[in-house]
Design goal:
4-stranded mixed sheet; alpha+beta; 5-stranded antiparallel sheet; elongated; 4 helices; 179 residues
Length: 179
């Protein structure tokens, strides 16, 4: 019976993974991008399961048990709500992005009527132990001389990027790929 349950759980997890993780909703001329419901639910359930699992494993594998005890509540209370709230919207008037860890959420809004130019840029940073990371951004330069740097660093913004670029091209705003 337990073996059959494990097979069914594996098949359910595999099907959820194959279904994609970003949902696009079209409401008239507005396109809204969010994570599929299963993504934050899996993180929430994994966080809720990790804590008691760590408690029971602390005698046999203390390092792994402490990792589960610490990461479980962080996943359940920090990352799962963040995934519920991540959102990108492309409307006829603006491109809006809400992303980040719950409590430290970054909100970016760029109105198309204010844009002079959009540049797609990449920046290379050196991470821990000398590992190189490449981060991508939309550098939105406004007509008044200010700019907004929108990170293209999660699946929601990556899914919204083609709609944003299409809208920029539709409105004849200068677009440069500098990656």
């Amino acid at each position: 019976m337990q073996r059959r349950f494990m097979h069914l759980a594996f098949v359910a997890f595999l099907l959820a993974g194959l279904s994609g993780c970003v949902q696009e909703t079209v409401n008239g001329t507005t396109k809204i991008y969010t994570y599929e419901l299963w993504v934050p639910l899996v993180v929430l359930i994994a966080g809720l399961v990790a804590t008691p699992a760590g408690w029971f494993l602390r005698q046999s594998s203390s390092r792994f048990a402490w990792a589960l005890l610490i990461s479980g509540p962080i996943a359940a209370l920090g990352f799962a709500p963040s995934l519920f709230l991540d959102r990108a919207a492309v409307t006829p008037e603006a491109f809006t992005v809400r992303t980040g860890i719950w409590g430290m959420t970054a909100v970016h809004e760029v109105k198309f009527s204010d844009l002079r130019q959009v540049r797609y840029i990449s920046e290379e940073t050196v991470g821990r132990r000398g590992r190189k990371n490449t981060n991508y951004y939309f550098m939105c330069e406004r007509k008044d001389g200010t700019s907004a740097k929108i990170p293209v660093g999660n699946n929601v913004v990556e899914a919204a990027a083609p709609a944003f670029i299409a809208k920029v091209l539709e409105l004849n705003i200068a677009l440069a790929d500098q990656t």
